[in-house]
Design goal:
The protein folds into 3 domains: about 100 residues, 2-Layer Sandwich (Nucleotidyltransferase, domain 5); about 90 residues; about 120 residues, no CATH class. It is globular. The strands form 2 sheets. Strands 3-2-1-4-5 form a 5-stranded mixed β-sheet. A two-stranded antiparallel ribbon has the order 6-7. Helices cover about 55% and strands about 10% of the residues. The protein is built from 13 helices and 7 strands. By secondary structure, the chain is α/β, with parallel strands linked by helices. A hairpin with an 8-residue loop joins strand 6 and strand 7. InterPro entries: Transp_IS110-like_N (IPR002525), Transpos_IS110 (IPR047650), Transposase_20 (IPR003346).
């Protein structure tokens, strides 16, 4: 009999395939080399295929969907309960085949090539920003060891770079040999980050949905572009709270014996990079609200009055996530909250 459902354990070179027929009997259990995968599934009638949402999963999902198959991607954590003990590739494929058949399984939308390019743009930018920060900290640390300090912030760092590039007499010549290449690398990275920022801004200007998101306080081009690259129109989420929960901005729940209990900390599940951007945006916005309270809504002013600032920042990030979902799913413009 022909298989109606497959599970695939993805890898770099060797793929494990597990297929069952309409009665649940195993009819396919074999390994395929990378070059054999497309040819094998091209010869199969349309079937349901389950895979974990891991590296290269979106590429293979698009490839197999083009062959007429119904491909579903699943979070690895949701597949794990269906994998028998003594893990190996064959049992991983078996777990994918079983999990994809469950009616309550949650699936990951297949990303387009454009979405993956956009995600790569942000990941590259994040890597360069981390490297730039490391170089700045290294220069400050080396000078601090010699008893010299610099002011905080971008202005202080720029003054420090000027001292290094002009060979300030206060800096020992032997130390300048170490600092000069670090300053050169910092300048180069800063230029590359600027180029990526311009590329992101140009793409935002061409997307109506992204432009609408930038009208939300605490949301700029970087957050708007990253959000659309991650979730598209957001319709895979049933509500704004589901989106906030996916980002890890909601508290964990622990229910037992009919008693409902929420923990004091957010779950920090889901997309870490997008969550970090939303929290940074909320922090920047609340800094302005604290300086000029009339800029903020009554809700956030009341929250700042009774809770610590960091709690208010996370709460604002969660609220922003819900607003983003509402605007993406409905296509509406941002409406500022009414004054008290």
């Amino acid at each position: 009999m022909q298989a109606i459902r497959f599970g695939i354990d993805l890898a770099k070179n060797v793929f494990q395939v597990h297929g069952v027929d309409a009665t649940g009997r195993v009819v396919v259990q074999r390994q395929l080399r990378r070059a054999q995968v497309e040819k094998f599934f091209a010869a199969q009638p349309p079937a349901l295929i389950g895979m974990e949402a891991c590296g290269s999963a979106h590429h293979w999902a698009r490839t197999l969907s083009a062959l007429g198959h119904d491909v579903k991607l699943m979070p690895p954590a949701y597949v794990k309960p269906y994998v028998p003990r003594n893990k190996n590739d064959a049992r991983d494929a078996h777990g994918c085949c079983e999990a994809v058949s469950r009616p309550d399984m949650r699936f990951v939308p297949i990303k387009t090539v454009e979405q993956q390019w956009a995600r790569a743009l942000h990941r590259t930018r994040d890597l360069l920003v981390r490297q730039r920060t490391q170089l700045a900290n290294a220069m400050r640390g080396l000078l601090y060891e010699m008893g010299q300090t610099s002011a905080q912030g971008a202005a202080g760092l720029e003054a420090l770079l000027q001292r290094i590039e002009t060979s300030d007499e206060a800096i020992p010549a032997a130390l300048l040999i170490c600092l000069a290449p670090l300053a050169g690398q910092w300048r180069a990275l800063d230029g590359e980050i600027g180029k990526l920022d311009k590329q992101i801004l140009a793409q935002v200007r061409q997307q109506q949905a992204a432009l609408r998101l930038t009208t939300i306080p605490s949301v700029g081009p970087i957050i708007a572009h990253a959000t659309i690259a991650a979730i598209g129109d957001g319709r895979q989420f049933a509500s704004g709270r589901d989106f906030a929960a996916w980002l890890g901005l909601t508290r964990k729940s622990h229910d037992t014996g009919g008693k409902h209990k929420l923990t004091g900390h957010i779950s920090r599940a889901g997309d870490r990079d997008l969550r970090r951007l939303l929290i940074l945006g909320a922090s920047s916005w609340l800094r302005q609200v604290r300086a000029k309270p009339d800029k903020g809504s009554p809700w956030i002013r009341g929250l700042l009055a009774r809770r610590p600032v960091k709690v208010a920042v996370v709460a604002q990030a969660a609220k922003t996530a819900r607003i983003i979902w509402a605007m993406l799913s409905s296509g509406q413009q941002y409406r500022a909250p009414a004054a008290a």
